Design the sequence.
């Protein structure tokens, strides 16, 4: 089973996503306010175990560090971003398993030079 839930912040036109299996979920590109993710996970009976960043965000403050602190989830980010925070660096061809969901990583520079996309 795979559930995808979109979160949208209209003032900055920011979309983030929760991708869930039966018991755990990943949050992709979390916004600064992590409460919606925590509330959704709790309501659905899920544990947030993965935080996936597609790129470094210059237009808003990401909530990845706060979400990691609140949940213990692991942060995954593009290797080419050279992030200074603890994370699992990702490059083209890497894979991430979330229950029976397999995310494949492809490098998709354009929006930012280090941008990656996840194929589930």
Sequence:
């Amino acid at each position: 089973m795979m559930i995808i839930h979109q979160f949208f912040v209209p003032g900055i036109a920011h979309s983030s996503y929760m991708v869930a299996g039966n018991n755990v979920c990943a949050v992709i590109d979390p916004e600064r306010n992590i409460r919606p993710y925590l509330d959704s996970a709790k309501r659905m009976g899920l544990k947030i175990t993965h935080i996936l960043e597609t790129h470094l965000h210059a237009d808003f403050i990401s909530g990845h560090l706060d979400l990691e602190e609140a949940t213990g989830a692991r942060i995954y980010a593009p290797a080419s971003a050279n992030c200074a925070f603890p994370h699992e660096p990702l490059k083209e061809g890497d894979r991430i398993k979330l229950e029976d969901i397999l995310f494949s990583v492809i490098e998709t520079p354009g929006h930012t030079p280090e941008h990656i996309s996840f194929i589930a």
Remarks:
- The chain has a mean pLDDT of 94.
- Residues 3-90 form a domain with the Metallo-beta-lactamase; Chain A fold (CATH 3.60.15.10).
- The beta strands are 3-9, 14-20, 24-28, 47-52, 74-78, 88-90, 95-98, 101-107, 116-119.
